[in-house]
Each structure stands twice: as C-alpha cells, then as structure tokens.
C-alpha cells in the first residue's frame, strides 16, 4: 500500500479546460457579463461574479430518448395502492422514477450558471475597448517596486557571483604582482636542462634556484584570491510606470436628481475600471460644482446634497488649479468626464468655452461630456426636444475641431452601450444625440 | 489487538497506514476479498473538483466540456448547494483512492474500507470489468491519450481538434461494443499499434472502396451488398468504431482521436451497468469492516456512532412521494440486497427457501456474495437475487405509463401476484440494452451518394429527442463526410416512424 500526498501538487489542473470553455462560450458569456452590470452596485464592479448563460450555447448533445412512449417505473414506498389502481398522470409528462439518471452534464436545463473570477470578468467586460490617444511621451514615476542592478560588491550570495568581473580582478592582480606565468617557468626549465646538457653547471644551478624562487612565488600569489571576488548587487528602485488621473466633474445643483447622479456615477465607475486596466496607477479627482466648485472625496461627491446655481466654469477653473498644483500634463495621462443635466448660467458660457479651448482640452487625453436626463423625459409631444445650453456650447466647440466626446443618457441600461461606443476600437470622438 | 486506531478526529499518514492494515486484515481474512494493491492519495477540495471534472480520471485530454463541468461543480460547491464526495476510486491497478484532506479520521477509515476494499474487490473480480477494462493499462493509456491530443492541437490547431472531439463526444454513448469481442483489451499496446495502424489504414481503406464498387446485374448486386456489409462489418452498433475504420474522408489523426474517445467510453461502460452492485458491494463491505473494528475495540463507541450516522445518510431511501425522492438510491438498494442475501444464506425463512433453494441456509454468506459480485451485472443480479421480503420492506410497486391511456396504472404491488413482475420490471429498468436507445449503422449507399443509413429500433414507442438527434447527426455527418439519415423503426410492425437527416458541412472531413 502506498500513500501519496497530492495536496502540494500544483493546482489549477482544470485551467486549460476552463479557458477552452470560456473561449467556446465567449459570446454568450460576454452578453451575460454585460447584462449583469446593470444589476450591479458600484463596489461589485471590480469583483468577479456569477453569470448564467443559456445552456444551448454549450450543449453537449447525445442520442437520448424524448419523454413519451410506453414506460414503466418501479418505485419504493407504496402506501395504499393495490394492483389495478389508476392514478392520474402527474403534470409534466412521465414523472416518477425517471429521475435516477441525474444528469451531471447539465443537460436538460435552460440556464448554465457559474462563477467568473475578477480577471475573467473584466477581460470579457472591457474586451475590444481601447483608450483613445493613449500614448503620452513621458509616462513616468509610479510606486511599483522593482530591483535594478546597482554595481558590484565584495560581499553577496554565491548565486550573484559576477564571474567575469571576478576573473578580471584576478587577472589584473596577477599581472600587478608579477605572478610567474606557467610558460615562463617552462621556458626556464628548458634553459636549465639545456645548460645542464651543455655542461654549464653554474648557470644551470642559477636557473634552478631562479625556478625554485618563481615556483615559491606562484604558491604565494594565488590564481584567484578572495580579494578578487565580486558579486552583482541589486538595489530596490521604483520602476517607471504609466499613470493616469481621472477628473470627475459633476453638476450637483438642485436640478440634478438622484437618478441623474446615479447615471453619472455608473459612467464614472466604468471609466475608472477601464483606466484601472490600462494604467498601473490611476488617481481620481472628484470636483463638484454648483455656482462654485470644490474638490471633494468620493463619499461627498456622490452623497451629500447641495444647492445653488449652476456655473460650469467654476469646475473647470478648479480642475485647472488641481492640474497645475499636482498633475503636470507632461507626466500624467489626463482624462476628464463631465456629467451635467446641461444647464448653465447663460453669462458663463463664454468663459466655459474659453477655459475648455485654451486650458483644459490641450492638457487632456480625453474629455467626455455626459448629459444625463430624466427617464421618460421627452418633452411635450410635437416639440423638438430642446437642446441644452451646454450641449449647444460643446457642439460649437466640436465644430471648431476640439476633441470632446458627447453623449446623452436617460436610462441606466444605456450607460454601458454609450460607454462602449465611446471607447470601442477605432472610435472617433463624434457627438450623437 | 484491541488498541485504538486513533483518538479524536485528527489523522496523519501513520493513522492511515494503521487503518489500512486493520481493514486489510478483516477484508482478507474474514471477508475473503481479493483486491488490487492499493494506492491512497490525499487531495484537497480543489483537486477533488478537478477530479470531478475529469470523470474522476487522474489524467485526461483537454476539452472545453471538462471546463464546463468544473465551472458547474465549483459554482455549486462554493454556494454550498453541493458537498463533495468523500472519495473517488479509480478502476486501475494499483487501485487509486482519492481521499479528501478535510475528512475526519473516522471518515478516512470509512472511505478506505469502502473504496480501497469494497470497490477495489468489485473492480478486480466482476466479470464485466474483466472483460471490458484493462486496469493495468488505463493510466498509461490516458497519459498517452492526453499527449496525443496535445500533439494534435500543436500540429493541426486547437479548433480542428476541438471539432473532432465535440463530434466524438456527441456519439460517445454509441461508441462502445455491447457484447464481448474476441480480444481482451490491452491498452498498453495501443500506443505502439497506433503508428502501425496509421500506415496500415491509409493503405487499406482505399482498397475497401475499390473492392466494393458494385458491378451491374441484380444478382451480382445482391452478392455485392452482402459482401460490402461483411467488409464494413455491418450492421454496426459501435458508431465511433465504424467511423474510425470506414469514414472515407478522415485524416489518420482524426481516426485516432475517435479511437481515444471510444476507448474511454468503453472503459466506463461496465461502471454504468453495475452501479447498484458496485455501491452495494462497497457499502456492505464498509459496514462489515467498521462493525468488526468496533467489535475488536479498535474504534470507540463515539466513532462508531459517527460512522452509523454517515452510513444511514448514504443508504437513505425516500419514498416516491417524498420531495427528496430522486429515483432509487443505488447505495440503498445495493446495501439492502447484499444484507438480504447474507440473511438468506445464514438465517432463511421458509419463503426464502422456496425462492432461493440454491443458497438459502447454506451458511456461507460471503461465499454467495462474492460469487454474485463476480458473475452478474445490475440487471441480472436483481433478476436473480431480489427477494420478496426486500420488496415488502421497500414497499415496491410497479407503475405502467402507457402513452394511449390518460392515467397511470398500478401494474403490480408487493404481493404474491406481483413479486415476480416487480422483480422483472426493476431488472429491466437497469438493463442497459433497454435504457440506451438501440441505434445501429445499417448500411451505406456506396453506389450512389455514399449516404450513411442508421436505424433506431424503437422500444416501447419511445422516440429520440428530435433536437438532440439533429445536433448529433450533424456531428456524425461532419465526420462521415456525406449525408446521414437516421430512421426510427418500429421493430414489431417494421415501419418507419420518423426520419432525421443531416448533410455534411465542410470542416472536419477533408480527404
């Protein structure tokens, strides 16, 4: 009898099969993942989770019998049946004892449920989206710790022995100390032998003693001395990584309802998750504004109510201040998303346009404007829906060739399609109602 | 001798060794079991899930369906809907039992008695396993199969291999020989023969087609029909075997993959037919061994109660009207039958003597059981050994569900008139010849469009599930390379009830 402890065996034996399965059912899973987003809260976004896909996509067909025909069952637990009794057929066909072939292949089910890991979830969720204008020339400084070579040291572990450097040291020391070379010794030996044969005994004697002296010297000067040994040295060093900052600008004046904020929040969330996937380091700055703007933390940003007028330029002003203070456009990839119901104080429009055109947009990688509306907010019948102040303003800016992505969203279920539209591969930043 | 094997719930490898030796002594000396050498492998929960996904096989080729199975079990397990089995045992020599690390010492004892001796004895001695499986060769063969499939994926692309495997899996249930063949399976030589076969096949199947092109003339044609059927070994119930040998447009590696799937299916074929007996044997053996260990004072009363609790859970049989009812529990039926046979052998009633004159009161319960375990499968075992008393205990009744009638009819209950009918009906329920639809390749239209003709001999008017048939036939047509038709025939009236067609798609068959 043998006992084998397999617990330490590498896990993930099914990984290859799992990947094959995910690839196989990719389309269905992707749909399921996207559907599941609608029902998810903010915090769940980055977790994996359970999805269910229609079983038909991953069906394993086999030659099975259908229900019907003449069947017989032997069942346990007879209580009061007598032979010849007739029992109304239970609804749902054959019923009774056919359950014994419990299907472990998942056959006969409408839905197949299983759990995805976070990694898989996000991969599927964000697949074939890309960040526009991703490359910034200088993407520097992050906090990822790495090791880099830091010269040589005379102490270290044998694994780090720098052989080349050690041999070089040994060679120069041998040269400096004039360690006799084997060839030189051999040549002297030959001379000594020749002298002996020639009968020049004195000379031979001198040569012999010279040889003895040199041999002694060889012994005293080692081929490799501990002094020569060098080790490669490594020092911890931060590795430069791409970093990004994301500005969330939101109008929190009285006209923005909770529903609208929720829409905005969902959009920010997607953007955040998306940036997280592309950059090791993502900072988020929350700026909310009424008739004045302030940088706040996330909790305040989404929760705390505020009243006041609406002056968009204050938010842009605040963004410019934060940019100047903390995020130099040279070092950071800057993304901004603005959510608003489209209201602005009329007198502020020019200032807003000016700020955007001269300060904000040139610094940004990407600027998205999301106009949120009330669900079912279509205006009176027969009227063309009014274009909001901001929408008109931004459309004008776009017409001048400035890169602003604009979308209108009224319902939660639109968020994801809109997001995908903005970031799908090869998308251009065009406006659409 | 009366030293405790372990205290408390903790165990280590010494405990397992002591437990194994104690169980072995009882199994060999008192129960007279003969087993393959044992290998006990301790695994974690995740590895148990891995094993589930691969039908319990320690190695298996890669395919998405195993990933699906894993995902499914993992989901259920994580949510707590499903516990994991305490063990998995593999019909191989040495016989591998996987035991979970979470088990208590007592559970490990139970598992070792159950799997390493009960199942092991059954695998080694049952005639079906001897006929159909090669316990020495299976692990090496699976290793070969995995390597071969991986190599094919490298050479021909994962998608191409997946298509063949998908198709083969769809036909897997009809990729077995149902009656014994001349040759005893010898999986060890499969690897060597694969190369020879490849060369041989390539030379041969062209000859086959040449030889079977019909000449003109009716008599000539009839003779040719006969000859063609003989050459193609028709009618043929093993669809995968037929495709492997005769599909005209498959590449050699595709044939080999069909062969691998078929060998695996064949390996599992006896297990399907002996579920009740196999579990019954293992459960009866663990019950005997654990009880004996308790009598010997090697496990405490507390542990014995723990054992009885698990044991009763395993052999619990809800009645038909219980919400928990999910068919006859093979553990319950198996264990009840084994205990009943032992009772009849040792302490029979007059009725038992009537019904089982051959062994009632013979006194050698284990002898009778060992012979039974060796010689039968579920269907014949039930037909032979189910006693009236057990039918009364289980309160079995027989329900007939005729398509034309609007109500079910109680055809027999546990009374004098009903015993034999119930027993026959229950045996039929376990007859794989009846539970699996009888589908055979009947003919090939070689003269015309090379259409493959299959017949389903419909039993009790039970037709096939149309959706599934469609999908499977599509796979079959893809492999065959030409059209396929499946005719569902009523064997009594000899008329066609339904036909299914499929046309080959490009992709698999290239030749």
From TrEMBL, chain A:
Residues 24-34, 70-88 have a biased composition (Basic and acidic residues). NCBIfam families: PRK05325.1-2, PRK05325.1-3. Residues 91-100 have a biased composition (Gly residues). PANTHER family: UPF0229 PROTEIN YEAH. This is UPF0229 protein GXW71_03935. Belongs to the UPF0229 family. InterPro entries: UPF0229. Residues 1-109 are annotated as: Disordered. Keywords: Coiled coil. It comes from Plastoroseomonas hellenica. It comes from the Bacteria. Residues 185-217 form a coiled coil. Pfam families: DUF444. The lineage of its organism: Bacteria, Pseudomonadati, Pseudomonadota, Alphaproteobacteria, Acetobacterales.
UniProtKB/TrEMBL annotation, chain B:
InterPro entries: Spore_V_R, SpoVR-like_C, SpoVR_N, Ycgb-like. Pfam families: SpoVR (PF04293), SpoVR_C (PF24755). Residues 10-433 form the SpoVR protein-like N-terminal domain. Residues 437-490 form the SpoVR-like C-terminal domain. It comes from the Bacteria. This is SpoVR family protein. It comes from Plastoroseomonas hellenica.
